[in-house]
Amino acid sequence: MKHSALLTQAKRLSVLSLGAGVIFSLAGCETLNDWLAPDRVNYKAAETAPALNVPSDLSAADISQRYAAPPPINTLGGAAQRNTTPAGNLTLGVPTTQDPYGMHVESDGDRRWLVVDGRTPDQIWPQLQEFWTENGFTLKTDSAQTGIMATDWAENRANIPDDWFRKSVGKLIDFAYSSGTRDMFRTQVDRASDGSTDISVTHSAMEEVLTGQDKTSSRWETRPRNPALEAAFLAKMMQKFGLTEDQSKQLIAQARPAGAKVAVEQTAGTSTLDLAEPFDRAWLRVGLALDRTNFTVDNRDREKGIYYVHYSDSMAELKKEGLFGKLFSSNTPRPTRQFLVNVRPKADAVTQVAVVDANGQPDNSSDAQRIVSLLHAQLN
Fold it and tell me: How far is CA 249 from its chain centroid?
């Protein structure tokens, strides 16, 4: 099939823009302060469609109460009452002596998460839904029951260089420009025993790499997660919850270290992990550690202490998503095995982590033991 001249030209411009984007990214610095700048993230690429008007030769339909949709029912209990901080903010969190802003940030290595005081996940969930849609994302997973929220793949338009050529003709054919990267974000929301809520954001990324001698073709490859970009979205989230930009940066910079070392226990050829901390904290850290591996959490059952995970193929997932799904053949994906990661109290302030089978017995398979090894590396 022959492509139109416009499409061919668009592809050429996309390749040129990608090359410029690579140079731009290499030339720029990637410090946390840079990513916290308000102009470093822009996923709002789609413009608002014009309003639909009724043609002059047609009469408008009679909009009566018979056809009106019933009012939405807020199953999460409505919007939480905001509180005034000593600094004068109206914040979603409940201010305390330790947390005058009603929230703080904790860290474990290069991972950070937000702790909102005095709020349950149900009270925060609607705010998180608004947050991601306001930042230009479509939610592909939105499960308040499991506390998992995930966005679709999206492009950060701020990564496209604003050069003279784009300023000249970019408004006419802006679709031809691409940063050559796609990002998605997973949000995990957990309740803590003290009545607060832990919120973590995990970044996944793909990059289009030019191939061939003439660099006119390309392929998508996995990119490392960007901890600074995760922190940038936590800062934006705090601003959504009522803090100023400076206050959110301050809490990111003053993140409180959390997390204890992990010991490996060997029993009859099966490896398990012992975390020297209570269940609440261990549950959160194991979830974050799983997000740092190539395993995706499909479901969670906190009551049973089970994470249901499978191996994640980012390439296959990207090909199925949105616009990219139209560019690839729809081969039937091979089924992937699901693993059960069990987090359970072992003693006072000690929690055990193991991969188990459907009967709750330790899984001795090589794949299961590999997951234990990956978790050990991430938790330490």
Answer: 19
Q: What is the pLDDT of residue 260?
A: 74
Single residue among 239, 258, 277 that ends a domain in this structure: 258
| The last residue of a domain, from among 241, 258, 275 | 258
pTM over 0.70: no
306-311 and 295-301 strand pairing: antiparallel
Instruction: Specify burial of residue 167 (Cβ count, 10 A radius: 0-12, 13-18, 19+).
Output: exposed
Beta strands in 283-349 (DSSP E): 295-301, 306-311, 338-347
Residue 329 sits at the vertex; the CA angle it makes with 324 and 334, to the nearest 5 degrees, is 100
pLDDT, one tens digit per residue, over 292-340 is 777 788 889 999 999 998 876 555 555 554 444 433 344 444 446 889 9
Query: Residue 345 in 3-state DSSP?
Result: strand
Q: Tell me: do 254 and 265 sit in the same domain.
A: no
Domain count, the chain: 2
Whether residue 266 is found in the same domain as residue 253: no
Task: Specify whether 173 is located in the same domain as 242.
Answer: yes
Same domain for 192 and 274: no
Q: In Å, what is the CA distance from 207 to each residue of 165, 214, 222, 227, 283?
A: 23, 19, 6, 17, 32
Q: Are residues 166 and 312 in the same domain?
A: no
Domain assignment present for 199: yes
- pLDDT confidence of 274, banded at 50, 70, 90? very high
Query: Average pLDDT of 70-80?
Result: 49
Interatomic CA distance for residues 249 and 235, integer angstroms: 6
Q: Is the distance from CB of 254 to CB of 115 less than 8 angstroms? A: no
Task: Answer whether 271's CB lies under 8 Å from 353's CB.
Answer: no
Kindly state whether residues 253 and 236 are assigned to the same domain.
yes
Is the model more confident about 324 or about 158? 158
